[in-house]
UniProtKB/TrEMBL annotation:
This is Amino acid permease. It is a multi-pass membrane protein. It comes from the Bacteria. The chain crosses the membrane at residues 33-54, 66-87, 108-127, 147-164, 176-194, 214-234, 254-276, 307-332, 353-375, 381-405, 417-443, 455-474. The keyword Cell cycle does not apply. The keyword Ribonucleoprotein does not apply. Pfam families: AA_permease_2. Keywords: Membrane, Transmembrane, Transmembrane helix, Transport.
Amino acid sequence: MSSNASPHRKGLGDAEHLKALGYEDSFHRSMSLWGNFALGFTYLSPLVGVYSLFALALSTGGPPSIFWLVIVGTGQLLVALVFGEVVSQYPIAGGIYPWTRRLWGKRYAWLAAWVYVWAMLVTITAVAEFGSGFLGSLINAPVTKEVTLGLSALFLVVAFAFNFSGTKMLARVARIGLAAELVGVIGLGLYLLVFQRKQEFGIFFDTMGVEGDAGYATAFLGAALAGLFLFYGFEACGDVAEEVPNPATGVPRAMILTILVGGVSALFSFGGYVLAAPDLQAVVDGNDVDPIPAILDATLGTVGANLFLVVAITAFLSCVLSLQAAASRLLFSFARDGMIPGHAWLGRVSPRTAVPVNALIVASTIPLLLCLLIYGGGSTILTQITAFAVLGIYVAFQAVVLAALRQRIKGWRPAGPFSLGALGFVVNVIALAYGIFAMVLLARPGTTGVFLDDWIVLIGLGVVMGSGLLYLFIAQPHSASHQPEGDAIAVAAMLRAHPHNAERTDVRPTSASD
């Protein structure tokens, strides 16, 4: 397929659209819509999310905590719709950074990207660490700090090798990971629901005593993490926009598909584990802190449980792969505009594989160093350094949503082929309200009485944002960057006035607001 145009549209081609935004094609557009969706889905990874949060959600909010998957999934779908309009006008590699730059300004974008890239690097580390447990169980390795470090490093190195091979290999492994995820969440979830159900469906309306004296509303809010930790990753589809044919149309579709399929998958998986749990009360009471292996052994047997481990390991590897790819594209986009030290080195793209190799090295090396930090400090360090990651990601997301709303108030009408028309403003407002609600839930201090444990989320975010602001004002990395900023209205007008767009029928649907 040509890098300049898609057979499904006429007029402004991909390279021409990119050139109009101030950039030249540097990548191979070899990632299909299916591959782009697979990348976002394996980053979102419902298998990883459900496995990691199942026991916590049930012990905090009981079986009704499953409804957080619906609440958060709906809220994040609204965010994805806003992102879709932005990436449709700005199909540029790097996602959060170029979007916030073109919607607001380079200093605003610098801070949003700084928070986001550290949140992603920490998430890569956490996924590799959690995945090492599955791999260790499969090979019957002892659970030691040395084994955990070695297996975590193995995940990072293997994922790097696949990413290093090029976009086609990235898309191929992401599709394999997608298949593993679908088998591991939908396939297994359906099997548990149909053949291994030990609870009635009414159990999802039974609090099973988690409310205590404080009332169930408090317990339910405390279980919000069941959804909030799961529904991100769809933005990775936009991180590789310059590697996708017709990204202005395809990337928004891939992001929305990621949310919808990921949400259904998570519901099947979470619900299946609840209904198949042989001793659900023990899980709700907090006496069984890792219930899924017991559920798998009881329902699948030893052989079936080992097969599931293989599926899970594939999903974890694919998740690390997708995270590395997204982080490297963000670093590349940051460097291409001269916004970080070593930008000439980080902004280099391999002429052979068309991959930002040096940015990929950084996206793989820093998580490895964080693994060494965890090895030296123990598992509590992992909890502490990852505590701010999800809040950091939500902050970065809402930086885009807020910037988009600001431009709409100033008169911006998105000019990409994906557009919500007159509904865009309403969706943007509700997405921002949802994001503020989610961030408040994530930032709430704990109630253990231990200062560091209770405030670690805000402390972590404060350290990252504080160091970013300090560097921004002292070193002024944005001062040498001369790419456009805050030009959403002007670019929309330029795209509509482009002579090739006279032939296009899919630039945007007409609406009353036009």
